[in-house]
Amino acid sequence: MTRFALYNELKELVSFPSYIYALCMMIVNDLNWNLLKAEETNPHLRLLPSEVSRIVSLYALSSKDDSYPSNALYIKELVDKTRNLMERIHQSYYTPDFFPFDGVDGKNQDEIDKLLGDVVLMQNQEVLNYSGEGIFDFQYIDYLEPRYAEDIDYLRVRHSFDVHKVKVGLEAIGALMKNKLNNINLYPYREMEKSQELIEELSRIDASHTAMMEFSIFLFQFYSQDIGEYDSDTVLQITCNNALKALTILPAELSIIPHGNEIMEMFTYKTDETLIDASMDELYKRYKANPVIKLTNGSYLVPVLIDLYQAVYNRPFHLMISDDGYTTTAGTNRGISAEKIVYSLLSKVFGESNTFRSVNLIKGKNSLSDIDVLCVCGNYALVVQVKSKQLTMTARTGDNEKFAKDFKLAFQDAYDQGLVCRRALLAKDTVFIRKDDNKEIKIGNLKDAFILCVSTDNIAAISFLTAANIRRKQSDHYPIAVSVFELEIFAHYLNKPELFLYYMRQRTSIDDRLHAVNEICALAHHLIHKIWASSQYSTMIIDQTCASFVDKDYYAFKNSIPLENADDAFNTRWHNKDFDAVCDAIRSFRYSHSTDILFTLLDYSRGSIDTMMEKFALCRNQ
């Protein structure tokens, strides 16, 4: 069955009576889980936020029959059918054409390249739809004002969009929604192997419902922890109410939130009869821009909270580009804001005296190019090219031509510009001028320069997409590509110049032989094991679950949650305070090759470093 036919089947399913309760139960169960216990959960048993968003985009068009179901088994059937359809939709990305190499024999190189190109296009779409979020929800809020810092007055006057007020209101709405979800006693019904005793006890109380006993336990989480109070009809009705309440905001609750009503109305989905025959991708784009659904009782359903954060983050951008008279100014301002954000993050790592924004490269009387952010440490440099070009929803949802165009503007152009700048930095006949004050930046002889491409858009699979789609010669330096949200995490963990540059050296030495969905996977592996290009293996594959260690640790850091006793591979990773002290002492030397010395020390295995520090201590004590 084609993907189109599967979505039509899903469209029919979501219009069934009482579907809203099945939808809410799935959302609460799949999207409300404890990030601090990420390694204990199986992500393959949960729907992704992007999958839920597609379901909701179809439900938004339905009649929204909120009558109570006759029994819990009916709700279970709706849930199971939905999960089955979503699994088949995911599998549809892996058609027989996905691996078209059975008939490669006899084909010329052009034909083989065409087959490989088609596979990459299919991989792009699968990864874009199923690689997760790539961002913490709070980052959308944190970067809202900095992203539109140059357009604050215009947005307020021209579009009545007060960025600061919207941010304050969104924070309050988010806190309210999270508090609602935290009050639910979560017990995923898909992990019943942990609950055999509860199943048996519930079966003795209500033997007539044996066929749906596991699902009844799932329902029970919304009602009471006292098993003796179980009554199938009462539990079902209360469960339906509580599941819906967990994801809705009442008008009375909004009245105490600053600008709450304005924000909800601003992002409420508008039904349109012309959308009845619209494609899945069109419906998805409509919902993602307005991810709040107003129910018949006047309350607001917020199915996926991060969708609301993302819609708020992107709305000013769409308002500005819709104004023909402001489009050029908006483009210029986005570039300025993006550079300032990246400069702010990297100057905390490299120091303001070694971090430069907007640098012109002059050779003779000609301008070669410019570097958005340049960082220097000893005889190494980091060339950062920042792009504010979005990967549009059209590109994300299956338009390969649009994807190629957007990728070029967001990454390929940044990389090509980075290559020119890298060559100029390593040459000795280029002058570097700061745009802001027209002063020359004195840079000594460099041993190497690394290229970092940064996007202000959230693209969860940047690392994979870069490896698969970037055009470069084999001899060209490999680029590292991250979003500004990922760069924030890099700056947190690689918080010293040599640590950041050492990662860049190790990572680029493996280039596209390392396969990871996003760069956070590679960072997590590096922090735990250290990335190393092995001569024994041609490929290095890092599973996406590796990133969960960083997700958990950084989330805990941002929310001041202590993790000292967390016994996992990340929190128990190797650390040697004496070695850090040695590195700090070397870093303090005003010597151009001190970075080389630090790289050499970092190359040692952890066991060798521990032994070295023991010998140093022994020498000091003699």
In brief:
By secondary structure, the chain is an alpha/beta fold. The protein contains 27 helices and eleven strands.
Can you put this structure into words, describing what you see?
With 622 residues, the protein is an alpha/beta fold. Helix content is 53%, strand content 9%. The protein contains 27 helices and eleven strands. The protein has helices at residues 3-13, 19-31, 49-59, 72-91, 109-130, 137-142, 144-147, 152-159, 163-182, 196-205, 213-220, 232-245, 251-254, 260-266, 280-289, 305-321, 327-350, 393-396, 400-426, 462-469, 484-493, 497-510, 519-529, 547-558, 577-587, 594-603, 606-621; strands at residues 248-249, 293-294, 300-301, 355-363, 366-377, 380-387, 431-434, 448-455, 480-483, 514-515, 540-541. It has a six-stranded mixed β-sheet with strand order 7-4-5-6-8-9, sandwiched between helices. It has a three-stranded antiparallel β-sheet with strand order 1-3-2. The protein has a two-stranded parallel ribbon with strand order 10-11. A hairpin with a 2-residue loop joins strand 4 and strand 5. The longest helix has 27 residues, at 400-426.
Provide the spatial order of strands within the biggest beta sheet: 7-4-5-6-8-9
Terminal residue distance = 78 Å
The stretches of 5 or more residues where confidence is low (pLDDT under 50) are: 186-194, 209-214
Percent strand equals 5-15%
| Computed CA radius of gyration, to the nearest angstrom | 27 Å
Average predicted local confidence, pLDDT? 85
Largest sheet: 6 strands, mixed
